Give the backbone structure.
Amino acid sequence: LQPSQTLGNLGDLPLDDPDTLREEIYSRITPHEGGLRVIASPTVLFDGLNISADLISRIIRILRDRFVVLIIDTPKWVGDRLVAALDEADRIFLVAEPQIPVLAKTRESLRLFSRFEYPNEKIALIFNRVEKKGELQPEEAAEALSREAYFSVPAASLRLIDAANRGTPPLADESPKGPFAAAIIELSEKLRSDLG
């Protein structure tokens, strides 16, 4: 996907004209051949510095009027823009690996969500890079976090490295095969069913 525009420099626009903002946001949507629509984050860090938390909330509300489902890939660090996106979210999918050091950070995220008074049903755990002989299995990790696992995705490091080197999505093959492909397809169907 080669977006011609990103969210960069949106913070330079006057926020008092909702129609102009809506047009600017819509003009930055890049269609993907698979049917998705993407708005890319700024490719240059400087371009996103003046995007405020208020602007993030407005962008999400504008896109909600046009799309049934929005998926927002957020940064790992906490800041006012992340909190604005989380506040607007109907569901938060917290992605973690079932490893002890990762679970400590995941537990901190869950505590933060609790401090923000997000209801438990808003948060779902997805375990990523699950190894059959891994340190912990998803059920054990979920139990340690006092949560249920929403979904688990098996590890596929070689497949993902190969896809990155080729510059193609890991499921771009005409008939994707293997446990990773099956899990991603199953997860997408589950999300479609649960999110509308």
About this structure: The chain has a mean pLDDT of 88. The CA atoms of residues 35 and 138 lie 31 Å apart. The radius of gyration is 18 Å.
